[in-house]
Amino acid sequence: MAIKLYKPTTPARRRTSVLVNELLSKKRPVKSLVVIRKKNAGRNNQGKISVRHQGGGAKRFIRLVDFKMDKYDIPAKVEAVEYDPNRNANIALVLYADGERRYILAPDGIKIGDKFLSSKNRIEAKVGNRSSLKNIPTGTAVFNVELTPGKGGQIARSAGNNLILAAIDGGRAQLKMPSGEIRTVSEDCAATVGMVSNVEFRNIRIGKAGRMRHMGIRPTVRGKVMNPVDHPHGGGEGHNPIGMKHPKTYTGKLAYGVKTRKRNKVSDKFILSRRNKRGN
Description:
The chain is mainly beta. The protein is 4% helix and 25% strand.
């Protein structure tokens, strides 16, 4: 996997880079494992924009990814590693010993022909294997971790992401997040050993506006160049500052550095240590 830089033949090309992965399969996705992706361009049932900066984009199919991996004690073999336009991680097409095929999140370093196992019992802590947290050695990197046993993986699912299983105590597993936060979940929650694939995704430079439009992202306009009726930062002649003590969103809520987590949230009791402050 490498990042390709283009020759600066145009101003846009000068800043554009793409990810080249020779291991990705070129074939089309399995028909039985995809559904059509309906577009609404960020509009509600009245046709009014409820989510800004959405619209257009290339046609996509949604790949039905198995986040539960609940075919226990049935060996599986990787048939292909594929690109998924709906997420920044790659996905793997796996064939189970009973003949069923499924898409899963591809771990980093996985190749065609590799085998893995999902089990509720203690198994080898090999990349791709999945089991309950109580069966995984402490200090292991895991991803696609459940918050509720049996619900399927909900955290650590994006490209290059993983959590560290720090400890298991009193039926709770302590997980260290990339932010530094330490959170506890039930030791019966399942997790996959390893790291999510496509680690270099964060280093890609989009380069030009047209490429963002292909991704279904419309332009973002600064609030300070709007009129006062459209944004709290709007108005004034020329290049003015926002003209208020704190920056705000277009709806008037405080922005940038303001805590957004609700007080006395139910899951507060599961957070042992808060995330590191910005700049530390």
